[in-house]
Amino acid sequence: MNIFRIKKHFKRRWKRWRRAIWTISACSIVALLAWLGVPLSDKLEAAMTREEPAVLETLADLQTAYDQVPSKEFRQAINEADQVRMVHLNKIYTCGEESQVLGKMRGKEIIELQNKHPDWTGHIDTGGEVWFDHHIEDLSDICKRSGYIGLDAKGNLSLFEGPPKDEKVMRTFFQLDIESMESALPEDVVNQIRQGIRIQDVEEYNSVLSTFSDYAATDSQKAMKLN
């Protein structure tokens, strides 16, 4: 069995308990900040520089919830110019993205659409067209069908459509310290990442990234933690 699937099963139960504990803690922090009248975004920015994974995960979820509140500026711009605009939906998955054209709509129709989908965030591009972003904690169809994580020719940990040998890179994560990785990990695990690890669900995707982030080259690792 794939080593990352075994790891995933052992982590599931602990993850549930850990998430519950930190959710309660994060909600307490939010309540305290509200009582003090301190903007959440300022505190989130400071908290996101810390290295405790569970805190980062919970506060990131809270930040997403805040970001999903419909933008007053976006709605105001749509209402003030009740014109026909082309509307797009960009589905941003944990692994992969998909875009589709929803068609032309008047301002009122655009606002009604966002009211029906409050988790969508919208913006108007330079051409006057409307784009909605829908964040989905899942794999896109293409990732489910043929997603692999492996090494590109330059030693970057990357997401591929198909095995790495096909060289169809969809996303590059970070540069790996190959020497450090090879000296620390079992040979079979190193061979797996060189041949490409098939990604079949979000937990396995996150598990692979978490495992190999320990061997990111210094500059890349810093950048990853800041994103």
Question: Can you put this structure into words, describing what you see?
Answer:
This protein is α+β, with helices and mostly antiparallel strands and 227 residues long. The chain has ten helices and eight strands. Helix 1 crosses helix 9. The protein is elongated, with a radius of gyration of 21 Å.
Strand residue content = 15-25%
- State the total count of DSSP E strands: 8
Count of discrete alpha- or pi-helical segments spanning 4 or more residues = 10
Major sheet size, sense and barrel closure: 4 strands, mixed
CATH superfamily of the largest domain: Bypass-of-forespore C, C-terminal domain
The average pLDDT value, as a whole number, equals 76
CATH architecture of the largest domain: 2-Layer Sandwich
Shape: elongated
Gyration radius from CA atoms, angstroms: 21 Å
Helix/strand structural class:
alpha+beta
Contiguous low-pLDDT stretches (5 residues minimum) are 36-69
CATH topology descriptor of the largest domain: Alpha-Beta Plaits
Number of domains: 3
- The percent of residues in helical segments reads 40-55%
What order do the strands of the largest sheet run in, or round the barrel if closed?
2-1-4-3
